[in-house]
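User: Hello! I'm new to structural biology and keep hearing that structure can be predicted from sequence alone. Could you demonstrate with Exocyst complex component 5? Please show me the input and the output so I can see what each looks like.

Assistant: Of course. The first part below is the input, the amino acid sequence of Exocyst complex component 5. The second part is the output, the predicted structure written as tokens.
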Amino acid sequence: QEPFVADEYIERLAWRTPGGGSRGGEAFDPKRLLEEFVNHIQELQVMDERIQRKVEKLEQQCQKEAKEFAKKVQELQKSNQVAFQHFQELDEHISYVATKVCHLGDQLEGVNTPRQRAVEAQKLMKYFNEFLDGELKSDVFTNSEKIKEAADIIQKLHLIAQELPFDRFSEVKSKIASKYHDLECQLIQEFTSAQRRGEISRMREVAAVLLHFKGYSHCVDVYIKQCQEGAFLRNDVFEDAAILCQRVNKQVGEIFSNPETVLAKLIQNIFEVKLQSYVKDQLEEHRKSDAEQYLKNLYDLYTRTTNLSSKLMEFNLGTDKQTFLSKLIKSIFISYLENYIEVEIGYLKSRSAMILQRYYDSKNHQKRSIGTGGIQDLKERLRQRTNLPLGPSIDTHGETFLSQEVVVNLLQETKQAFERCHRLSDPSDLPKNAFRIFSMLVESLCTEHIDYALETGLAGIPSSDSRNANLYFLDVVHQANTIFHLFDKQFNDHLMPLISSSPKLSECLQKKKDIIEQMEVKLDMGIDRTLNCMIGQMKHILAAEQKKTDFKPEDENNVLIQYTNACVKVCGYVRKQVEKIRNSMDGKNVDTVLMELGVRFHRLIYEHLQQYSYSCMGGMLAICDVAEYRKCAKDFKIALVLQLFDTLHALCNLLVVAPDNLKQVCSGEQLANLDKNILHSFVQLRVDYRSARLARHFS
């Protein structure tokens, strides 16, 4: 049995043999084990011979059965060939018979068709004779239930009558035409009644009969008219139209043989009658009196009409339904879209002017005229070159004349204008129209509001020698910065998608770049003059508070203060201005302005210290002052400014160091790279500079 392992089999045989193992206290007997193995091998050989004989017998039986099976297969193949031959003969016989039958059918049809035509012609001649006699006796004409057969006959007679000469058959032609018209009217009336009863099968029958009549189109018109009865009862004509078309689309295929033509005609009727009338009523009411409402209505109606068109695209309206629906929309709105952009620009202009004027009126402010032309341009160039105020300073009383509310209103109006422009403009005119709207935004927001505020802010900056001047220009900078971010966001979010793939993109980007650069020039100028005013204020504080006796006290041994009053007030003023600059700007602009202020602050203190003579105790007090200035400079968080004050602090050490140590201090790390004249100028400020010993040590 599988799995068979010879080693395990021998082991089991050895354990079963007495004396075959050493366990259990039984002695090992190799002879007995050998005898057991020999006997077992003989048994296996006998078993092998018996199994081999059985295998040979089975193989012989299998070979015998295989021969019998092969013989049977050969017999079946012969039978199959005979059957196939019989099948071919039968197939040929069937084909022969079918050919005979088809030939016979053709002969019968050839005989029957002329006979049927003759019978049909005979019937038509019979009916024609009745019209000639002037009396219709046939049941088909008198029985109203056989209107379908009568319609078929009269339609054929009408075609025949048209071929007859008028002079001989005028009367009968007139009678046939009259009957043709009467039957047509009856069929249309029957169709109308069936439609009112909702009998779709009857409508289908009548429509199939009328298909060959001239009044078939009138039947379609009646169907379209009755479909719309009671369909437009709500206020939403667009939703009603969509529901109606969806209902008719399910029904029209069961009635007419050309459902797509009927549905297209219904849609055309809805657009040219219902929608056109509705749109005209909504727009003409406000077209001349209220531009805002007119534009809102135009956008809303056009959007709803295009949405309806998208829903109708699901239906089968023929081959080019996109063009068909586009023409219908154009026929409704063409008179309004032709001058849309002019209305849009006119409205934006008046609306923006109103928003700005309402703001200035709320401030009781009369806008100054910022002149243009040669003189103003000359002033502007001089101001940019000299950074001097040209003209009287204006007291703005802290008003920046910039309003985030005004900006949001202007941007909201422009955003809506961009949305309307995207929807209502022809694709070829879209970039051009979007650029015009952007130009209006630049004019109203950047020129009329921001630029005016900058000009007013510049005029409101006092001169650098003014005392206790209020500096509001940084508030203008802060608000202008916020407004620029909003302006840039609208440019990217709403204008860029409309012009991204047109030549107008570069024109818009250039216009935006020009206006920003123009604003930045004025901002830079205002910031520079504001920094000058800050330095001027510090000069006034130092001039008013610093005394000569501060650095050369009468009693050297009785100095109780840590730093001078002038230093305290200047540091307090500087810290306020630093905080104001940080709140007014962002990004790298903060570091740039603070660096400029820090450099000017250092220059002021440096020049201020040069004005005094210093005793030993006075020099110590000066060092304390500079240490406080340096602490103040740390608030700038500008490495250059802190380095300048570190150097100034080291220079002040020259005011108190012992004469013997002057050369060592001057060659120190912070002073080694300074010009010798600068070092000399500080040493000269010492009261003991005239002594021969000090002059000799420094020479």
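User: So the tokens describe the shape?

Assistant: Right, they're a compact way of writing down the 3D structure. Reading them back into a model, for example: The chain is about 75% helix and 0% strand.
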